[in-house]
Amino acid sequence: MSVNLAKGQRVTLQKSSGESLTVVRMGLGWKAAPKRGLFGSRTRQIDLDASALLYAERTPSDVVFFHHLVSNDGSVRHTGDNLVGGVGSEDDESILVDLAQVPVHITQVIFTVSSYTGQSFAEVQQAHCRLVDESTGQELARYELTGGGPHTGQIMAKVYRDGGGGWGMQAIGAPAKARTFQDMLPAIEPFL
Q: What span, in angstroms and rounded, lies between the C-alpha atoms of 103 and 149?
């Protein structure tokens, strides 16, 4: 059963049997919002980019994004860059995290979205971030990006070690001004 998360809400990442999850997929989906003009409405393509930043406590350790598709240790993998979004699938970009293989010094993985082409989120509709149990395909949690706004980046969510040997997820939903994950580094700091 999927949980619709509100901003700031946390959920434990366990199977219904109580076992810890092994591989999760963070999916990002979006569509460009149609703009009304003098001659009707039109849709402009928007290139959103999903990134995963691996942190050892508060220190960045690695990043997975469209130019570095696999983390240095191999535990996090981006499935590829989608330049337009909304092409029929549930998720336009996905990042797989093998929780069992994440090195012990990595305490959290922060997921961000940035508008590489520079359009604001006011021009995006039906944007979501969701977490899926990759072994079963079951959606575990979903965070809907609502409200649009003038920002070009979003700190979506984080997966973190919960202290008891398992993992949890927190919906963040914080806006940022960013075309790339590097632009968001200062905005990420308060959520570590």
A: 36
Q: Are 23 and 99 in contact (CB under 8 A)?
A: yes
DSSP class of 8: T
As a 3-state breakdown, the chain gives helix, strand, coil percent values, each rounded to 5, of: 5, 50, 45
CA dihedral (179, 183, 189, 192) positive or negative: positive
Tokens found for residue 186: 């200062």
* Rounded CA separation 89/102 (Å): 28
The CA distance from 77 to 19, in Å, is: 23
d(C-alpha 102, C-alpha 106), whole Å: 7
| Tens digit of each residue's pLDDT, the chain (192 residues) | 455 767 777 777 766 666 777 898 988 887 766 665 555 555 566 778 889 999 999 999 999 999 999 999 999 999 976 655 565 457 888 999 999 999 999 999 999 988 888 888 777 777 777 888 888 888 877 777 655 678 888 888 889 998 878 888 888 888 899 989 999 999 999 999
Distance separating alpha carbons of residues 27 and 137, to the nearest angstrom: 12
CA–CA gap between residue 97 and residue 158 (Å, rounded):
12
Strands 124-133 and 23-32: antiparallel
